[in-house]
Amino acid sequence: MLACGIIGLPMVGKTTFFNLLTQTQAETSNFYSGRTEANQAAAIIPDARIDFLSDLYRPRRTLYAQLEIIDVAGLVRGSSQGQGTGNAFLTEIRNTDALIHVVRVFENTEVAHVEDSIDPLRDLETINLELLMADLEMVEKRIQRIHQGKKKAEQLKELAVLEKIQAGLEAEQTIHSLELTEEEALLLRSFAFLTEKPMILVVNMDEEQFRNNRYPQKEELIAYSQEKGIPLLEICAKLEMEISELEAADQADFMADLGIKEPGIHSVARAMYQSLGLISFITVGEDEVRAWTIEENTPAKAAAGKIHSDIERGFIRAEVVKYEVLHELGSMARVKEKGLFRLEGKDYQVKDGDIINFRFNV
Ligand SMILES: Nc1nc2c(ncn2[C@@H]2O[C@H](COP(=O)(O)OP(=O)(O)OP(=O)(O)O)[C@@H](O)[C@H]2O)c(=O)[nH]1
Ligand SMILES: [Mg+2]
Fold it and tell me: Which CATH class is domain 297-360?
């Protein structure tokens, strides 16, 4: 399962978001604990299509797409050099595939801010700088190593990429923002650089900011997100907690009062999924309705392999119905009646929301 790490300064609401995403109850606190162990659990990616299909088929099991979420201790200025809880968190998030960066704009005198003031742009820069420095340190060490050894042809290639990203990092450019070729990216893969990972920004507002749709540095943050191409989501963790504690029927009323259609945490989950370039295809039946995670542009045969290697090996055809078609017609019988399902071969590139029945022979 692909994993996302939640990062940010201490006491910005990271663990609160972790709990919301994973429906767990990891401990949160009003003060900086210096606790270093990470929380880890799976998050369900909410999907209205699966809700609908589950109502339609009433299967024994309904399975949504999932991502692993890792919540680490807050980073502080100098973390990459061992300050605060130090480098430990870096190891935890190095193995993730994407980062959720939580910044605090909520006012709450009971929850201290490590820098004593609300200044999300400064906080954002602080964390980003730590990530850059951690990567730069790895790059420098590796370059030095290569220079000390006998340089083989392969290492000269690696050296060239390393020097390229070194220059980038020194100019405060993330590796993600550098346009690397596929070959270059491959040479860097084993390093699992932090600034190479896709990132989304989550602005944690208080209730008043949420209701007024206003918070400090809002325009600057939005400009920042657009300039860097980093998705930005505005959420009030406090309200999200209240929503999550209500019964389903009350949730709808409460959200209607707030003027929202779904909990904000749902859009965070989907944004993570998208930032990873992931899509879902769906299988349906009395036994189970299930979303399967694949990368964009996956061919049908490889998608079949997600379910079982036998189905990939014995692949004959994929029967594909677009979710929207089934949703509109209301039953698979009517879809078939109208001849609206397609037969696709092994090279067909599976689309998000394809409902697939694989024909295979082993
Ligand atoms: N008023 C308000 N308080 C919040 C909000 N989100 C989180 N808090 C509070 O802030 C405190 C810290 O929240 P956590 O989720 O533990 O923060 P954290 O980022 O995980 O903190 P560390 O793990 O120490 O780095 C808790 O007391 C939360 O209840 C919010 O949206 N509004
Ligand atoms: Mg925490």
Answer: alpha beta
